[in-house]
Amino acid sequence: WNVQSGLLIRSFYGLRAGVTGICFADNDVEIMAGDWYGNLVSWDLNGKIIYQKNLQGDIASIKKSHTQNKALMAVGSAVYEIDIATKKMTKLLEIEEVKIAQAIYSSDDKTIAVCKYWNSKDNIGILKNGKVNWYNIGTSANHIAFYGNDEKVAWASGGIGAGNYGMLNLNTGKTDWQIEGKEGGFEDVASVNKNVLVVASARSGMITV
């Protein structure tokens, strides 16, 4: 889309349904996206498919690196880092029983945060130097975002039912605050800067700042 006018410039085809993540390559001449059926597709800006692969597991999220031409992908119960240029994938983490809902980089890309789908124990994990530490927030956290100077992680529960969102303090290991969302589950949470969060509701379409 043209951001200023809101007009559609071009549509990209190749995914089945439920686009779960999308990002540009560093040079802005390639777009990569994934879907619930495990399809990973890259296009040039004219909409031509230049790469296509099925990863044999649902792709829950794709998040671009801040400093490198790489992205994190949550695929089934594992987290992969993909080089967008070469498409080489490296498995960084795999857990048992439940699936990974999202994986994100910190602002300097040195730390990775992950969260689990519909899990009430050890919900958020912090991966650094090959080791993961889990934090229990007492509720599900299906969407996350680093906040402040990366010493906190904002979280939100998704889906169409009742949801909530809050702030995990990594220094104390405890939740600083939590708000129940009566308008419905939340579809995403994003850190605009070190002081502002945006939360999107899945059911009401409301944006909370």
Task: Show the helix and strand layout.
Layout: E1 19-24, E2 30-35, E3 39-44, E4 49-54, E5 59-64, E6 70-75, E7 78-83, E8 89-94, E9 100-105, E10 112-116, E11 124-128, E12 131-135, E13 143-147, E14 152-156, E15 163-169, E16 174-181, E17 186-191, E18 197-201, E19 207-208
Antiparallel strand pairs: 1-2, 2-3, 3-4, 5-6, 6-7, 7-8, 9-10, 10-11, 11-12, 13-14, 14-15, 15-16, 17-18, 18-19
Describe this structure in words.
The structure is a single chain. This protein is mainly β and 209 residues long. The protein is built from no helices and 19 strands. The chain has strands spanning 19-24, 30-35, 39-44, 49-54, 59-64, 70-75, 78-83, 89-94, 100-105, 112-116, 124-128, 131-135, 143-147, 152-156, 163-169, 174-181, 186-191, 197-201, 207-208. A 4-stranded antiparallel sheet has the order 1-2-3-4, with no helix packed on it. The chain is globular, with a radius of gyration of 17 Å. The two termini are 23 Å apart. The relative contact order is 0.09. The mean pLDDT is 89.
